[in-house]
TrEMBL record:
It comes from the Eukaryota. Residues 20-29 have a biased composition (Low complexity). Residues 20-49 are annotated as: Disordered. It holds the Pfam family Cupin_8. Residues 175-315 form the JmjC domain. It comes from Naegleria fowleri (Brain eating amoeba). Gene3D superfamilies: Cupin. This is JmjC domain-containing protein. InterPro entries: Cupin_8, JmjC_dom.
Length: 315
């Protein structure tokens, strides 16, 4: 279930009878301030229809997090993803050591599932900096998927690059993983949006501390991002904050990416405007949660664990 760390964003909670929203005080600062509890933005705990989703969120380009989306959809026979994809949910366990052992077991089972299912395929993956940062220039290379899984297992266990290589299965088109689209259904939230069509559907698999530097999605697209396994920490900024982010020039293919490598360790002399940027929110996306990211929103994403995600881009 999603955990809001800083800032303010609407959350639709499908996990219980009473939704809860965590917000912050209205005091503005670059880091968003300290999180406090509040009830001024409580959202009804029912799944919005496609028309409601369009009228309330897509139309106004308003981000929203749907907590427990996967659990709700599965219980309502939407068959969003196959059972083998849902190994990350251990809510029946209470003891921390038991959870840790169970997660390691499930992590192995999950990666073994991918290895058996797609190990015969060659896919393009990203080779990042040795510290796990995805920041230009990144390098793409084609690798056998079974070898990628073996590499990621060691990378996750050691929490460091393997043979000086930090790999990330980043935005792999699902069309490259032949048959994977039979494992899940496309969310219906955009079905009532008259000007939106599904443009791309991609798959992510990465390890703890893999980080994607501050960027917005290009071309300008709406993004439905579904967390399947593990956790990701998101930092979200509104489009107008881009003037403070020192994006690469429009004469490059990275004009949607900030030149600032690590936003938690910003060189204030080199990037002084960043201090003016206002963080909209910071949250942890957990297994089964979905976030709607409207066009142009800047975001920084960090893996808090090994992680599997799907996203759906709408033009």
């Amino acid at each position: 279930m999603v955990q809001l760390l800083k800032g303010k964003v609407e959350i639709i909670d499908l996990g219980g009878a009473t939704p809860t929203i965590t917000t912050t005080s209205s005091e503005s600062s670059n880091d968003g301030g300290e999180g406090v509890s509040g009830d001024d933005d409580i959202i009804p705990s029912s799944m919005p229809s496609p028309q409601q989703f369009h009228d309330q969120y897509i139309k106004y380009r308003k981000p929203v997090i749907i907590k427990n989306y996967l659990k709700y959809a599965t219980h309502n026979d939407w068959k969003v993803v196959k059972q083998e994809w849902q190994l990350g949910i251990c809510e029946h366990l209470n003891d921390q050591d038991e959870i840790c052992l169970e997660m390691k077991k499930r992590e192995f089972e999950m990666t073994e599932y991918w290895k058996k299912r797609f190990g015969h395929l060659d896919v393009f993956i990203s080779e990042l900096r040795e510290n796990g940062l995805s920041h230009p220039p990144n390098y793409e290379r084609k690798m056998n998927f079974a070898n990628v899984i073996d590499h990621l297992r060691i990378q996750e266990e050691t929490k460091q690059a393997v043979n000086s290589k930090w790999l990330y299965v980043q935005q792999v088109p699902t069309s490259d993983l032949i048959g994977i689209t039979n494992d899940y259904s496309i969310p219906n939230l955009f079905d009532a949006s008259p000007y939106s069509i599904l443009g791309a559907n991609t798959f992510f698999l990465g390890t703890t501390n893999t980080r994607t530097t501050l960027h917005y999605d290009r071309p300008l697209v709406d993004n439905l991002f579904l967390q399947i396994y593990g956790e990701k920490i998101w930092k979200l900024y509104e489009p107008q904050e881009g003037v403070n982010f020192y994006s690469f020039g429009f004469d490059t293919k990275y004009s949607h990416v900030s030149q600032i490598p690590e936003i938690d360790q910003v060189d204030a002399e080199k990037f002084p405007l960043f201090q003016k940027a206002q963080l909209l929110c910071e949250f942890i996306l957990q297994p089964g949660d979905l976030v709607y990211l409207p066009k142009g929103y800047w975001h920084h994403v960090q893996h808090a664990s090994m992680s599997v995600s799907l996203n759906f881009w709408y033009y």
